[in-house]
Amino acid sequence: MGFCDLVFLYSFLLLSRISCAAEVYNITSLQPLAQGRTLVSPGRIFELGFFSPNSSGNKYVGIWHKSILPRKVVWVANRDNPLAVTDALASLTITSNGNLQLVDEKRNAVWSTNISVSSNGSPAALLLDSGNFVIELKKGDEYLWKSFDYPGDTLLPGMRLGFNSKSGRRSFSTSWKSENDPSTGKFLIGLTTQNPAQVFIWINGSTPYWRSGPWDRAMFVGIPDMDDQYLSGFHLDVNVRQGTKYFWYNLFGKTLAYLYISSEGVHKYMYSKYGENWNLHWEAPKFPCDIYGTCGPFGVCEASKSSTTPICKCLKGFAPTSVDEWSRGNRTRGCERQTELFCESNTSRSVSWSRKEDGFWKMSSVKLPDYHEYSSLDDEDCRILCRDNCSCLAYAYVNSIGCLVWFKDLIDISEFSSGGADLFIRLANAELGVEQKKIKIKLIVSLASIFFIIMAAIVFGLYKLRANQKGTIKVTRNEITLTDTTDSSRESLQEYIRTQDPSELLIYEYDFDSILTATSNFSITNKLGEGGFGAVYRGKLEEGKEVAVKRLSSCSGQGVEEFKNEMLLISKLQHKNLVRLMGCCIKDDEKLIIYEFMQNKSLDTLLFDPMRRGVLNWEKRFNIIKGVARGLLYLHHDSYLKVIHRDLKASNILLDENMNPKISDFGLARIFQGTQNLANTQKIVGTLGYMSPEYAMRGIFSEKSDVYSFGVLVLEIIGGWKNTSFYDHETELCFLPYIWHIWNEGKGLYIVDEVLADSYSASEAMRCLHVGLLCVQDNAADRPTMPEVDFMLSSETDRPQPKQPLFTFQNSVSDRRPRYDNTCSANEATITLLEGR
Ligand SMILES: *[C@@H]1O[C@H](CO)[C@@H](O)[C@H](O)[C@H]1NC(C)=O
Ligand SMILES: *[C@@H]1O[C@H](CO)[C@@H](O)[C@H](O)[C@H]1NC(C)=O
Ligand SMILES: *[C@@H]1O[C@H](CO)[C@@H](O)[C@H](O)[C@H]1NC(C)=O
Ligand SMILES: *[C@@H]1O[C@H](CO)[C@@H](O)[C@H](O)[C@H]1NC(C)=O
Ligand SMILES: *[C@@H]1O[C@H](CO)[C@@H](O)[C@H](O)[C@H]1NC(C)=O
Ligand SMILES: *[C@@H]1O[C@H](CO)[C@@H](O)[C@H](O)[C@H]1NC(C)=O
Ligand SMILES: *[C@@H]1O[C@H](CO)[C@@H](O)[C@H](O)[C@H]1NC(C)=O
Fold first, then answer.
1. How much is the pTM?
2. Whether the predicted pLDDT of 59 surpasses 60
3. Is the pLDDT confidence value at 238 over 50?
4. Rounded to the nearest whole angstrom, what is the distance from the C-alpha of residue 704 to the centroid of ligand 1?
């Protein structure tokens, strides 16, 4: 080695040592990216550079999260054209024609973007904080090229999987060959062109390996544990006009995440909170039943989390095609039908006349089979459509999708313990008959239990007669679960009868006639208002006490006993910010609830009255906001009975003589519906303008839907505006978009009601405004919980930045789709939306 060589080597080593730490923020034709340097995103979240996987003789250019371990390379430029690991002179540059090019030591292009631009600018390549590697000509111009259009094995938030049916372009994610080899592997993940679409993993390009089940507008039906992930921002954007369909997801707060397909074909969702190391959130396929078609055509896999081998059986009315193969665990030929369908037989044959029409057999909680076809029919017509076409093998009606029918072999069905959908399978009458006998037996059993219930009711009635002498009935704590009228609740009722404890809470049962007198036969002059669950009347009892009487509309479908028990439970909810329940009254179909009467009526009568609005000074408004928050906090978290209000609005906030707020109508949602935390309900009760997007669109309600309504209420209180009748002509924005717009411009105090003039605390008002905007974010997961709200309201703390609310529920009852536009809704009465077309 000559002296010159030594000098060269030395200076090269020195240079590379120095440049080790070098970070750049762009790549231009003048400044290529050499080895030892990395390109970083402005927020230092992502980094792009040269890397060489373990024990491989190859070198690649890739992108990874800058500071989260273990390092995951989320995108590789030259995955199929590696550089030699010894190549120290390769660099990434921008060519004269504006393309990014990776050149090796011999200046040969190893990889290049393939764009044709007649550029007379000087393009630069940048790495964005989203992980998108882009080429731009000028700041603010559309990108000439972006890595997000070419996914590798990883889907970053904002990246899209899907297709454009007009251009024929589809984007897939492809696994690496092995953990240390980024070249194209054998697993492919993408979206199908079916309607509704499914996500599939294929092996070798075409053999199905896993599928998600159809998308139901918020989640995939075949992934039952996705329910809470719904709240974490998955989307499927469909643009019929452009013929595109894309699946993507977004993030919340300080969480980072990526979704990738491992070299073994496992689809994983990884996340990192606040820059901690990567954690696994979810993966599939995980269990034997997750593998596509494990049990063959017409086979069913019993999804059991513990077992490592799939438990296969045949659909009802089917048996293994080959018992021999089946018993050896070879399910490729699956099962076949045992009894010929009536519609398939030649009706001319004499034997057929005595046979009956085919029917449907219902399977609950299943992963629906592949090859569905969609129809826009309703529930009943869906059944008829399938019944009248002999090649229709099964149908399902999924609320948030509609009618699905199957004409091909039913494959990849799993039975879940919960979640999934109901599937109706066509069977010959003879196959159904067996089950009808079982139904008869069940009927006898249930008749017996009805008899028992009647007996129990008589016993309870006798007790009530005694109790009525005091005018009260009562119940001990935690005894009765209302919505399930099971024997255990009866038993506990009897248990209660035996153990009377006078210290327990009582509920007064009023005499119907006395209520009639008090309200002058529910005269119109005594009517205070009309709520979602019935009308409210003012009444004066004989002893002179004033009460409010709610006359429940009869559509609750609750029996008298259930109603009373529910009232007993609700009467135990006691908090200074809830209206006190004084008793109930039941006669025939009439169900009345008697509350304490509130001097200052409801908040809307003051807040939205231009003449009287001034009565509510800032101190009172702030007190009302905090009070409502506490009341809601109690309902959601601190009471022994979790209650989601579902119809929180200004007219349901009553004010006592000191302007203290009291939430009314709480617990009524319970009477009208079930008791789940997060439920998907057929019947949507609520008020336009206060309804959260997920509730209005899909009937999903949770604490977070109440939080949303609370947010709307807070913003109304600050501004003295009614959300449904607000429209700003200058900006052409409705209530929420307008407030966000003003707040975002840093002019939040413009929102504060002008009648308050300068007599308010700017910091408190800004705090309320900020909290209000956090509560009305489109995505339920972004919204704070009530404990967080309470905390943020009572002290100056760090608050996250609210996202812009895009959702506006248009005033259209028949159309349940969201409108991403600025149309205002004008109806402020509580409505009941019934699902379905
Ligand atoms: C590239 O980055 C340098 C600083 O690192 C900056 O001076 C230059 O303007 C940038 N060029 C472009 C095209 O953004
Ligand atoms: C690379 O090798 C190191 C040390 O052998 C090991 O700890 C690390 O997990 C390996 N990384 C990969 C991706 O295999
Ligand atoms: C680049 O694009 C041209 C046409 O746009 C195409 O013919 C060519 O095959 C592409 N080359 C590569 C390497 O993709
Ligand atoms: C995929 O292809 C490889 C190689 O061609 C083959 O060994 C493997 O069996 C194939 N797998 C499936 C499921 O078709
Ligand atoms: C299973 O059965 C099918 C057809 O009956 C046959 O082609 C296949 O080889 C069998 N597979 C195994 C693993 O035995
Ligand atoms: C029904 O009748 C057709 C001709 O009319 C015949 O080809 C077919 O085999 C018959 N099917 C059965 C199940 O008997
Ligand atoms: C039954 O449905 C199939 C598939 O949609 C269709 O091709 C066929 O024409 C239908 N048959 C009748 C009798 O409607």
1. 0.59
2. yes
3. yes
4. 45
Q: Closest-lying ligand to the alpha carbon of 388? A: 7
What pLDDT does residue 532 have? 64
Q: Is the Cβ–Cβ distance between 363 and 356 less than 8 Å?
A: no
Closest ligand 7 atom number to CA of residue 391 = 1
Assign domain 470-596 to a CATH class.
Answer: alpha beta
Token readout for 648 is 């929180």
Angle at 41 between CA 40 and CA 46, to 5 degrees: 75
Please tell me if the CB atom of residue 389 comes closer than 6 angstroms to any atom of ligand 7: yes
Phi, psi dihedrals of residue 325, rounded to the nearest 5°? -60, -45
Which bin fits 377, alpha (ψ -120 to 50), beta or left (φ > 0)? beta
- Which of 216, 290, 358, 647 is an active site residue? 647
Q: Is residue 648 a contact partner of residue 629, using CB atoms and an 8 Å limit? A: no
Distance CA 171, CA 161 (A): 5
List, by residue range, all CATH 2.90.10.10 domains of the chain. Answer: 1-150, 151-286
Residues of the chain with CATH 3.30.200.20: 470-596
Where are the domain boundaries for CATH 1.10.510.10 in the chain?
Answer: 604-833
- Total Cβ atoms within 10 A of residue 16: 15
Cβ–ligand 7 contact at 407 (below 6 Å): yes
The amino acid occupying position 356 is: K
The reply to whether 647 belongs to the active site is yes
> Taking residues 315-338, what's their average pLDDT?
92
Question: How far away, in angstroms, is 639 Cα from ligand 7 center?
Answer: 56
Rounded Cα gap, residues 618 and 764, in angstroms: 9
Q: Whose CA is nearest to atom 4 of ligand 7?
A: 407
Question: Tokens for 333?
Answer: 């030929």
pLDDT at 19: 40
Is the CATH code 3.30.200.100 the one for domain 1-150? no
Query: CB neighbours of 226 closer than 8 A, spacing ≥ 6?
Result: 219, 220, 234
* CATH numeric code, 151-286: 2.90.10.10
Least confident of 107-111, 142-146, 280-284, 680-684: 680-684
Superfamily of domain 604-833: Transferase(Phosphotransferase) domain 1 (1.10.510.10)
CA–CA distance, 474 with 165 (Å, rounded to integer): 65
Which tens digit of pLDDT belongs to each residue from 776-801? 999 999 999 999 999 899 888 888 89
| 29 Cβ closer than 6 Å to some ligand 1 atom | no
For residue 195, the model assigns a pLDDT of 87
- Determine which residue's CA is closest to atom 5 belonging to ligand 4: 204
For the segment 359-375, the average pLDDT, to the nearest whole number, is: 93
Pull the structure tokens for residue 351: 């034997």
Annotated binding site for ATP: 550
Most confident listed range (222-236, 444-458, 500-514, 754-768): 754-768
Q: What is the pLDDT of residue 3?
A: 38
Question: How many C-beta atoms surround the C-beta of residue 679 within 10 A?
Answer: 14
- Using CA atoms, how far residue 60 sits from 84, 434, 641, in Å, is 9, 65, 58
Q: Rounded to the nearest whole angstrom, what is the distance from the C-alpha of residue 330 to the centroid of ligand 5? A: 6
Atom of ligand 1 nearest to the CA of 122: 13
Report CA-CA distances (Å) from 42 to 92, 760, 765, 801, 834: 19, 40, 34, 20, 49
Please report which helix (H) or strand (E) contains residue 479, including its range. none
| Ligand with the closest atom to the CA of 342 | 6
Contact predicate 624/653, CB 8 Å: yes
- In angstroms, rounded to a whole number, what is the distance separating the alpha carbons of residues 38 and 27? 10
**Feature table: binding site:** 550
Within 6 Å (CB) of ligand 6, which residues are found?
A: 345-346
CB 677 within 8 A of CB 825: no
- Check if 408 has its Cβ closer than 6 Å to any atom of ligand 7: no
Whole-number Å distance, alpha carbon 388 to ligand 7 midpoint, is 9
